[in-house]
UniProtKB/TrEMBL annotation:
The chain crosses the membrane at residues 41-62. Keywords: Membrane, Transmembrane, Transmembrane helix. It comes from the Bacteria. This is Uncharacterized protein. It comes from Syntrophotalea acetylenivorans. The keyword Transmembrane helix applies.
Amino acid sequence: MKNIIVLLLGLIGVIYLFNPGAGFFELIPDNLPFIGNLDDAAALALLVMCLQHFGINLPDLFGRKKYKKD
């Protein structure tokens, strides 16, 4: 059940980022300075957290290496 909820939240984030309504559905209008893109950042953070829940880490996907300190 938890995986279904996380999947639905991820789909909501993707739909919000693709913005099929061409800007008609915005929680915070983008023309407000500094705070206009906070809703888009929150949708992106939601999507990244959902991907991490399913084991898809974006730094690993793009080949970023983790170095250990000696």
